[in-house]
Amino acid sequence: MEIMEMGSIRDIDPERWDTVVGDDPAALHGWLRAFEETRLDSTQLRYWIGRDATGILAALPATVYGPASSSEGIIELLFGSWRVGRIPGVASVLGLGAGPAIVGGPPMGVGASILVRRGLDDASRSEAARTLLRAVEAQADGCGGSVWLRDGGLETQACTGVFDPGRYGTSIEMPTTSLDVTWDSLSDFRMALRASHPSSERNIRIKSNRLRRAGIEIEEVVDPAPLERTLHHLLDRHARRLNGKPFPTGPEFPTKLKRYLGDRALIRIARSGSRILGVSIALRHRRVIHYKPIGLYETHSLRSEVYHGLSLYQPIEEAPRAGVRRLFFGTHAYEPKLRVGSSLEERSVHVRGQGVCRTRLLRAILGVRSRLLTRRIVELSGGAPVHGSRRPLRPEP
To answer: What pLDDT does 135 receive?
Structure first.
């Protein structure tokens, strides 16, 4: 298998790249290209591929932090917006947030680090993933850098024997939420929910009625170009309020996303007359839909209703008509998603440091990180169980 490193996703054929994308649309060529062409930061994006005469067998999209990179970027990966106590400062002082570092996974959104072509047997999948990863590790070793594989890669792609247990430390991540589509209509869903969780069904009815009485409609955007500035304003304000940092792309991101992915990119807005109150962006791929960024007019009195309408009620209503078998709702606001029957799916990060001492320190920090995250997950989810990743989809009827 030949290993190649590319500096731009545009240098890779879209159809060939997408053959290794599983059910994680954040790794789709069109999503990566739209992000690459509109992103606001200056970090390096790299794409490693392993190919033979039949095409691409394995791939690894990554963000590369150089030796002079600020430690903030990697400390952000470790602790995000939920920093607790002195741990982030200790990690920074110990140099655990310093570059160089290769951080695998899509630069925006939840997705796998190591992508392997479907249809290969388990042994071939493991071999392709292992060969590609060893090449990335060798490049990191050459510059004294670390390797971060976000969202697993081992669990995500069902590969075995890929990671060297003596060199990698592991930590849990905030789980994502998913909902299996077992209903044929919204009325069927509400009937089943009324039997299992009557208060949640009542909330859906109340919030939907409030939206209807206020004249707020949710509609799909076919051409986002005329709305770019408004949509970006909503996305940016919501990102700053939720994460304490700006939305990572410029205003033209939704337009480029539609250009490259067509009807696989679902952009919906909540509108009251000529006023846009909210926006959601989702990706449809195979039999799943992943809901990605959302933006809200944060001072509107019906902000909660708009959020639930965009991120829950509309997807639940449209899923069976679109032939979708599973909905993914992201890693925040667990409570309302769990109340409608969603499950938590585990995620993890694997980190390979440089040197014995640094690796031991890194493992200790990752252990603390897992304990802090576990506490945070319990607080946000009410102690709901976290399931193994990649449960099989419900068969076609």
So the answer is: 95
